[in-house]
Amino acid sequence: MYSIKHKIWSFVSILICSLGFSSCQTSKIVPIEPKKEIKPIEIAILMPMTGSNSIYGNQYDHLIKMGLKDGLKTDINVTSYDGADEKQINASMDRIIERKTKIILGPLYSELTRLIAAKAKENDIIIITMSNNPVLADNKLFVFGHAPLKQLERILDHFLDNDYRNFITLLPSSQNSKTVNTVIQNMAIQKNASLVHSEFYLNLPEAISKSVKSVSDNIDNLNEMDDSNKKSIIYIADDPKNLNLIFNSINKYNLDKKAIIIGDNRIDIDYPGNINLTFTGSLNVLNSNVVERAKDFGINHLSFMNLVSYDLGHLIARYIGNQFIEERFLMRLNSKEPYVGLSGNIYFIDSIAQRDYDIIRKDGEIYTSISHCEPKTSLKE
């Protein structure tokens, strides 16, 4: 009898276990592997933080960081290094390599970029330099600086295509100015227009004043002889100090009312007077709060290079995305898919930044786009 009962209970026990009661199962503990910690990517900003260009270097540094922060989707470590001269940049490069940096934003100039290019390549570091020298470009060295001659061609094409025929140049006496003058002359001839006068001035206040008067006299003569309703075009370019002197004389002779003053982005300086100007640029900045935020760093007027700096930081953050994968990052840089930036619509061809510029009319403090350049396509997130 005991044997039968024992067998019945054994059968019931087996049946219960087969129905999946955990009390009858042997638990197997599977260890959970800890998630691998993703280290933040190291990014270096290499700008002149000391010396004669430190005021610009510090501004660019602040704006690159602002752009990075605005576009960030992952953790990064950003370290600023001094790239003022050969000694500083070599010392900085040693520390950059020590920290296993992946990306360098900078330097500002061609010669300093050349100094670090070989070391960066040996250590698999990507450089995006703010130089505009196309010779520097390589598969991991991207040239992000803007090309003034491209802007020159853009703005001249606009006026030549709109049947403006008389052009005058007002430029500092230099070899570069002669190159600019030749480009303008050749482009004018191809469109049946004329470079009617070229004025080159020395870097002296009295020389600048005299040259502006000469241009004004030429404009008066042209306006008397020409029955066309198209004003003459005056092309200018210089550093902010000389441009302030030029603008003083332009005001004195009402030159911007008698002619159209044109140039690239650099002529849009922080000048207190009301000067009408036309230049290459972008109004994208008007749709952002960067202008107001820059004032927190003491930057009361955003130059074109300030906008380029912000774009550099923001573009890099966007292209890194959620995680830095070098192949994907390089693919995005080389995709020719424009990034819509504050300094224009930007894309790379053969590691060289290309920008599509609007033609901007500035009347006092009012900016208007008179010829808008649409991006070929928009950058997808």
Please describe what this structure looks like:
Residues 14-28 and 374-381 have low confidence and may be disordered. The chain is elongated. The N and C termini lie far apart (79 Å). The chain contains twelve helices and 15 strands. Helix 5 packs parallel to helix 6 and helix 7 (205-225) crosses helix 8 (240-252). With 381 residues, it is α/β, with parallel strands linked by helices. Helices cover 42% and strands 21% of the residues. It folds into two domains: 40-145 and 283-355, 3-Layer(aba) Sandwich (Rossmann fold); 149-281, Response regulator (Rossmann fold, 3-Layer(aba) Sandwich). The protein has a seven-stranded mixed sheet with strand order 7-6-8-9-10-14-15, sandwiched between helices. It has a five-stranded parallel sheet with strand order 2-1-3-4-5, with helices on both faces.
Quick summary:
42% of the residues lie in helices and 21% in strands.
**Low-confidence segments, ≥5 residues, pLDDT <50?**
14-28, 374-381
What class do helices, strands and sheet pairing give?
A: alpha/beta
Number of DSSP helical runs: 12
Radius of gyration: 31 Å
Major sheet details = 7 strands, mixed
CATH topology (fold) name of the largest domain: Rossmann fold
Query: How much strand?
Result: 15-25%
CATH superfamily of the largest domain: Response regulator
Topology, number of strands:
15
CATH class of the largest domain: Alpha Beta
Distance between the termini: 79 Å
**What is the count of structural domains?**
2
Mean pLDDT across all residues, rounded? 88
CATH architecture of the largest domain: 3-Layer(aba) Sandwich
Helix amount, in percent?
Answer: 40-55%
N to C succession of SSEs: HEHEHEHEEHEHEHEHHEEHHHEEEEE
Query: Strand sequence of the main sheet, in spatial order?
Result: 7-6-8-9-10-14-15
Shape: elongated
